[in-house]
Design a protein that fits this description.
CATH superfamily of the largest domain: Dimethylsulfoxide Reductase, domain 2
Bound molecules: ligand MGD, iron/sulfur cluster, molybdenum atom
Radius of gyration: 25 Å
CATH architecture of the largest domain: 3-Layer(aba) Sandwich
Helix content: 25-40%
Number of domains: 4
Number of strands: 31
Length: about 750
């Protein structure tokens, strides 16, 4: 007789944190469906959720470390792999110093708290300032704008979806992406609910999408135009005396300065650069001001552009000017269970540019350099040239700008090590690949996303299966020991003790911390027998605002409580967080930080000079996840998705036909791609999804290689970034399109 068991866990694949219900029959995953009792997702799931089974069983998923021998990779034991890393890496570090090493952390590292927690330890062990991550091809403008406004790059307010009366969405398509920097399972249902309760949804996007189809109004903006358009909205609010700061008003500084900065951006002045008629701009401003509550939310289309930080800053400024900052129905700050009680008072503030990149002099932002500049740092000779690279959970060969240059750079490294479950376009360049366990063989807790969620929720998932190799924290710990010079045989427990010790020391430090004055050893003795990363999580949850403070608050959250509640624990709707959330030196919201003000001139110049060349934008499809899930047959089957969408008028004037091939050329490269003629895209805008291009030799992703698609980052230019955040420009790329 088969033995069937039922399990509940949170999907780790995107930011939506859906609850899954899995059946396991004799150790084999059976059915995966949405967990109807999940406190947050209530049964919602997308087609990717059920593919955890496929990822778990994928024969191409690496089970053992790989070492590069000539042009191919061969399996080795874990001890051999770490010995090889030591053999290859240490001479480079000894000869050229720590600054010859770099690290790149990819997107899944925030979906996996072992990496979130241990990534730090690895960076410290490497001892380099060459720190790169997917943040600078994604949301760094949001960190920067919130840093300038609130003094803390992590203090990101989210739209209070379930209570708002008016939602203005710019450059996001949550019907496909399931939302980002605003964690909410079932974005579609929540958006529909806004309209059902009489509210209004307005979506600004140069393309027609499922999200725009479900909105009250779709505004087709010129790619890159959001900052200018939001500035015009703010201009109207001042000009028509519609500014009303609401409850956050007593915490805001700089309203006058905003008025001055946006004054030139009249709806007429920005019309040519945004394609939005002045009367529409005025009406939207009036609607935002008149709505009982409203929130402005921008994502990829407002972040991965030349004015990413200004656009992201203006989403919050417009929200604040209409009285909707930090109030129910507006933009509000989450308070994840692991986050500490917030205290009022001046903070350390937010600064960037404490150090700069060697070649182009880009400022650091949150201790990171723009990943768009990684290739030039590898290929430009001289003191401080990067010769050794560690990638963790990333595929920069497909996800960062100018792939041709990036791949040439990766190929030229003296040594490269990757922590990754696949032999893909990036890891094929690695001398050693260290594969983590299957996502079902580790525990899960959304440390990053519960700090971005539209409700305060806690949900812990234990591992479903025994891992067949070391846990990811063990892999990263061993790697940290090797790179710090302690040798391939050193005991990872040294790092585990250090990581845990740091969190415990933080808990008892100061005179008003949650556990001030208590003995770390006493706290450690109270921890359960868990994996190393789970012990760190346990401390964070118990010292968080909702935690049991190690017995001081017996009703508080513990791991046992989470384990007893496999559908999660709902800690309620978001509550006002001002002024506790602020870490500015003034202890106030600083609406106009100096670097932000200084960048506004550049925006004015752009508005006056932008030309009419056709531009490229990206798009996402529900069945994809950046570059790494195209090896799942059920997700890639069917109609070709990697197409260049072209408006019928453009197709006609450029001589293109539906199903034919086009050659697309940008400042850095060209690709040949099948054309899809559709008025989903605006005239002068073409769209190509990212994350494709799986035809590189030396990879091992059999399904993906059969449907390779075309890599859109062969067209994006690494020399252009948003100067305030260092974020890459991935949308609004000038291109020329001709028949191939
Ligand atoms: N043109 C263009 N480019 C873009 C974007 C765009 O919109 N347009 N979007 C950008 C955005 S938003 C992002 S976030 C980036 C993503 O950029 P990356 O993070 O560099 O790329 P991913 O495709 O997410 O690749 C993730 C890698 O992590 C591995 N992986 C998966 N799970 C795990 C795990 O648990 N542990 C480890 N160690 N590895 C794991 C996968 O095998 C894969 O190699 O791409 C960016 N690039
Ligand atoms: N299915 C699926 N889900 C995902 C991912 C995935 O690859 N596939 N990736 C995940 C990741 S890492 C992230 S960061 C999120 C991203 O989540 P979203 O931000 O929702 O991402 P997109 O679906 O790319 O939506 C961006 C929209 O911006 C529009 N756009 C492009 N340029 C501009 C512009 O200049 N202005 C305006 N207003 N709009 C513009 C595009 O047409 C597109 O519709 O999705 C996550 N979820
Ligand atoms: S929406 Fe995201 S979290 Fe939910 S099932 Fe799909 S991939 Fe998983
Ligand atoms: Mo992302």
């Amino acid at each position: 007789m088969t033995e069937r068991s039922l399990h509940y866990r949170t999907c780790p694949l995107c930011e939506a944190t859906c609850g899954l219900e899995l059946t396991v029959d004799d150790g084999v995953v059976g059915r995966i469906r949405g967990d109807r009792d999940d406190v947050f997702s209530k049964g919602f799931i997308c087609p990717k959720g059920s593919t955890l089974k496929h990822l778990h069983e994928d024969p191409d998923r690496l089970r053992a470390p790989m070492v590069k021998r000539g042009e191919s990779h061969v399996e080795v034991s874990w001890d051999e792999a770490f010995a090889e890393i030591e053999r290859l890496l240490m001479p480079v570090l000894e000869a050229h110093g720590r600054e010859s090493a770099a690290i790149y952390l990819g997107n899944p590292s925030v979906h996996n708290y072992a990496l979130t927690v241990y990534g730090r330890a690895l960076i410290t062990a490497l001892g380099t300032k060459n720190i790169y991550s997917a943040s600078t091809v994604d949301q760094m403008p949001r960190h920067a704008s919130c840093g300038f406004l609130y003094g803390d790059g992590l203090a990101i307010p989210v739209p209070d979806l379930d209570r708002t009366d008016y939602l203005l969405v710019l450059g996001a398509n949550p019907y496909e992406s399931n939302g980002s920097l605003a964690t909410a399972p079932d974005w579609p249902g929540r958006l529909e609910a806004i309209r059902e309760r009489g509210g209004r949804l307005v979506v600004v996007d140069p393309r027609r999408t499922k999200t725009t189809d479900n909105a009250d109004e779709h505004l087709r903006i010129r790619p890159g135009g959001d900052a200018a358009w939001l500035a015009a909205i703010a201009q109207v609010l001042f000009a028509e005396d519609l500014v009303d700061l609401g409850p956050a008003g007593e915490h805001l500084d700089g309203v006058e300065a905003v008025a001055e900065l946006v004054a030139p951006f009249t709806p007429e002045a920005v019309e040519r650069a945004t394609w939005i008629e002045p009367e529409v701009t005025r009406r939207i401003a009036r609607e935002l001001a008149a709505a009982p509550t409203a929130a402005v939310y921008g994502r990829i289309g407002t972040n991965t552009v030349e004015f990413g930080t200004l656009a992201s800053w203006l989403t919050d400024v417009v929200t604040a000017l209409t009285g909707n900052l930090d109030r129910p129905g507006g933009l509000m700050w989450p308070h994840g269970a692991h986050q500490k009680v917030r205290r009022t008072g001046p903070g350390r503030g937010f600064t960037t540019g404490r150090w700069h990149t060697r070649v182009s002099g880009h400022p650091e932002v949150r201790s990171e350099f723009p990943v768009a500049a990684l290739a030039e740092e590898i290929t430009t000779p001289g003191e401080g040239q990067i010769r050794a690279l560690v990638t963790v959970a990333g595929n920069p060969a497909r996800s960062i700008p100018d792939s041709a240059r990036t791949e040439a750079a990766l190929a030229s490294l003296d040594v490269m090590v990757s922590v990754d479950p696949y032999l893909n376009e990036t890891t094929r360049h690695a001398d050693v690949i260290l594969p983590p366990p299957s996502p079902l063989a580790r525990s899960h807790y959304d440390l990053a996303f519960y700090a971005l969620a539209i409700r305060n929720v806690a949900n812990y998932s234990p591992p479903l299966f025994e891992p067949t190799g070391p846990l990811e924290e063990d892999i990263v710990a061993r790697l940290a020991l090797v790179v710090s010079g302690q040798g391939a045989d050193a005991d990872p427990q040294l790092i585990h003790d250090m990581v845990l010790g740091t969190v415990l020391a933080g808990a008892v430090a100061g005179d008003e911390g949650p556990l001030a004055g208590r003995d770390p050893a006493e706290l450690e003795a109270q921890l359960g027998a868990r994996s190393p990363a789970d012990r760190v999580l346990e401390v964070m949850l118990r010292i968080g605002w909702a935690g049991d403070r190690f017995g001081a608050d017996p009703d508080g959250l513990t791991m046992e409580k989470l384990e007893a509640n496999p559908h999660g624990i709902d800690l309620g709707a978001l509550t006002p967080q001002l002024p506790g959330v602020l870490k500015t030196t003034s202890g106030r919201v600083e609406l106009v930080a100096e670097p932000v003000a200084a960048d506004v001139d550049r925006l004015r110049t752009w508005v006056d000079t932008v030309d009419d060349r056709p531009v490229l934008v990206g798009r996402r499809h529900l069945r994809s996840n950046n570059s790494w899930m195209h090896n799942v047959e059920v997700l890639v089957k069917g109609k070709e998705r990697c197409t260049l969408q072209v408006h019928p008028d453009d197709a006609k004037s450029w001589g293109l036909s539906d199903g034919g091939d086009a050659k697309v050329t940008s400042s850095v490269g060209s690709v040949v791609v099948p054309v899809e003629v559709t008025d989903d895209v605006s005239p002068s805008v073409v769209s190509l999804p990212h994350g494709w291009g799986h035809d590189a030799p030396g990879t091992r992703m059999e399904v993906a290689a059969r449907r390779p698609g075309v890599n859109s980052n062969l067209l994006t230019d690494g020399s252009i970034v948003d100067p305030l955040s260092g974020n890459a420009v991935l949308n609004g790329i000038p291109v020329e399109v001709v028949p191939a």
